[in-house]
């Protein structure tokens, strides 16, 4: 019964941490930019056109239409470039990178701190810390 209580307390803290994390600037920015991208008619139109063109390309390959396939590949390249060059899409992509970096940092610190406390074997030799030499300072 006590083990269940410990797990419950840990999960409460995890949810509290997640709630606090949702208020971090990078998370707020990501959510805002994601919403703008999802609500942009132009972005959504380009995404739909890219999907349609990809499907047509599969059919062109299947039915061995090399000229049409080349045309579709070029069209797909142009559509992707147009989408990638939109300022809001660039901002969204940058925001994704920042979110990924934040989550990676959290994961590394947690792994390092947990392995310090539990002396977890990470494969091969038993070491202290996560081994990344990152923000938690372990080697």
TrEMBL record:
It holds the Pfam family Com_YlbF. InterPro entries: Bact_com_dev_regulator, Biofilm_formation_YmcA, Com_YlbF, YheA/YmcA-like_dom_sf. This is Master regulator for biofilm formation. It comes from Novibacillus thermophilus. The lineage of its organism: Bacteria, Bacillati, Bacillota, Bacilli, Bacillales.
């Amino acid at each position: 019964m006590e083990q269940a209580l410990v797990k419950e307390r840990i999960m409460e803290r995890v949810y509290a941490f997640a709630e606090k994390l949702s208020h971090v600037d990078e998370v707020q920015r990501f959510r805002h930019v994601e919403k703008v991208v999802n609500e942009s008619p132009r972005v959504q139109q380009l995404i739909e056109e890219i999907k349609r063109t990809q499907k047509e390309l599969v059919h062109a390959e299947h039915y061995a239409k090399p000229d049409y396939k080349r045309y579709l590949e070029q069209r797909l390249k142009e559509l992707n470039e147009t989408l990638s060059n939109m300022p809001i899409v660039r901002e969204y992509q940058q925001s994704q990178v920042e979110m990924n970096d934040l989550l990676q940092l959290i994961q590394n610190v947690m792994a390092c701190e947990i392995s310090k406390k539990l002396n977890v074997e990470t494969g091969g030799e038993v070491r202290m810390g996560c081994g990344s030499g990152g923000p938690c300072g372990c080697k």
